[in-house]
Amino acid sequence: MSRVQECYDLTEKLVTMLKNPYEKSRDEVIAEIEGLLEERQETMKQMKAPYSEEEKELGRQIVVWNTEIEKGMTNLRNDIKRTINSVSKKKTTARKYSNPYASLQHDGMFYDKKK
Fold first, then answer.
1. Rounded to an integer, what distance in angstroms lies between the CA atom of residue 96 and that of residue 82?
2. Number of structural domains found in the chain
3. Could you list the residue range(s) of the whole structural domain that residue 81 is in?
């Protein structure tokens, strides 16, 4: 199997994982994606020209899939950001509920100078 075919197969796996990433827990999916990306990176480093017509066609498909991978990674990152924001919001809400007078603000004081 050529390096281009290996890269094609790894890219195909990445695309399918990013299209439906929630079959497993998110941490497992992220770990698998990282592993595939590292393996794909190593395979890409080992590719050398000249390429046959079939390999060139596989390369074109890999380039098309790269945009899908970028979109999927962006969606995954945004989902993680939303989760982090909701967790931090829940923490502050719970803190305010358990101790409602802790965050009272004393904006200023007024002294009456008249005697």
1. 21
2. 1
3. 3-85
